[in-house]
Amino acid sequence: MTTSTRGTGKVPAVLVLEDGRIFRGRAYGAVGETFGEAVFSTGMTGYQETLTDPSYHRQVVVMTAPHVGNTGVNDEDAESRRIWVSGYVVRDPARVPSNWRSRRTLDEELAAQGVVGICGVDTRALTRHLRERGAMRVGIFSGNALPDEGTMLAEVRQAPEMTGADLSAEVATKEAYVVPAQGEKKFTVAAVDLGIKGMTPYRMAERGIEVHVLPATATVDDVYAVNPDGVFFSNGPGDPAAADHAVSVMRGVLERGTPLFGICFGNQILGRALGFGTYKLKYGHRGINQPVQDRTTGKVEVTAHNHGFAVDAPLDKVSDTPFGRAEVSHVCLNDNVVEGLQLLDKPAFSVQYHPEAAAGPHDAAYLFDRFVSLMEGQRA
User: Fold this and answer.
1) What is the pTM of this model?
2) DSSP assignment string, 155-204
3) How far apart are alpha carbons 282 and 304 in whole angstroms?
4) How far apart are CA 190 and CA 94, in angstroms?
5) Bond from prior residue into 359 cis (ω within 30 degrees of 0)
6) Maximum alpha-carbon separation in the chain
7) How many whole angstroms separate alpha carbon 232 and alpha carbon 136?
8) Active-site positions?
């Protein structure tokens, strides 16, 4: 339950983790209460893109950068139709935004969209706690009539966990829509929206691709009704182990041999479609500074991430799958987590991170060109 009253100032707020750790601060954004999974993001910029990324649905984001809100909120950088985070945690909110595109303050936007946040807490200590104990359920409570600590902790422990959550349909478009190609149309792509960010079809449109964005509930017949040259599976929230429908559609695409590209959640769906397992990371990868090696070229990229689950695939060998040979194409240099897959006998590949770079570095933009090359090769 939230209210739209702005909380920045002296309104008391409390953050309660499911293991009983408590942090006290001041309300930021809307006043009320909210629950979700506590995760931290290491990005020092791009908070507007983070807030509007549907992959953050049902998560309370802790910003490791101490000063947040200094560029305000504009009307151009949102990645979807709304803010998706369940709650927001910052140390030192900007008192006055300073940017020529700013239209309002961050706390005004959070309050307007009913997002409960907290400021004035030691986010370094909170981040270290989550690194040591792992991502966990959390509640933020604010207002002048806060419950007692025992009541707040009980409510946090009653909140749903992320493990087993099937959330794509909650954030995806309900109706199909088309993002037209820029300039000459070269290809048609069916993009299955599992929580797609707005910049992703834009990056494809830049390359002459007409993108048909389809709901998460789309069937294989829906995908092929647009006569696609390629099929794309997007990022999204939730546990890939619960996304059986998306896996079924992915397998239908693989059977037909259509060029296929997946990112983030789409990488996990490809992993499951190939017969690999998935697992929950202790605290996940979230931020715009994660080092990944493309094992096909040896190149190291600085990349943007937002995932709490990963694919369990062997790093040291080529695997036999129902759709031919597959290998791990990308790996995280921090912890050897699988960051990409590719089939060797069919035109299909995926990465665990965000090549659309919103916000983030541009090192991985070549992946859209790789997708184009697959479609060119299939057409030839």
Assistant:
1) 0.95
2) HHHHSPPSTT---HHHHS-SS-EEEPPSSS--EEEEEE-SS--THHHHHH
3) 18
4) 41
5) yes
6) 68
7) 31
8) 264, 354, 356
